[in-house]
Fold DUF5615 domain-containing protein.
Amino acid sequence: MSHIRLFIDEDSMDHRVVNALRSRGVDVTTVGEVRTTGFSDAEQLELATEQQRVLYTFNVGDFCQLHNIYMAEGRTHTGIMISSQDYAIGEQMRRVLKLMATESAESMINQLVFLSAYIGES
């Protein structure tokens, strides 16, 4: 089983979250680093899938819709992880780490996961 690698979209591209995750050994890249800021959500999901990364976002509506389109069309993506903007940096990190401790890259294929289901450890 492979470890989850993250692709953080424009809405959730906070350098504090990125740095906190990297300091804990998480493989993270952002739309800013790959210079795709301003690309459509569909293009970002395609890029994340090409790079075999789970897309991390706050954008519930658009990515739920994209996930449904992918499933209806029989297309594959490498996973979408949706977080709440209301979570503090530490809470986002704890929830991501909890998810990563229980899921693999393979188990995330075609999954849309809400971080609200993963309560971080204190």
The first helix runs from residue 15 to 23.
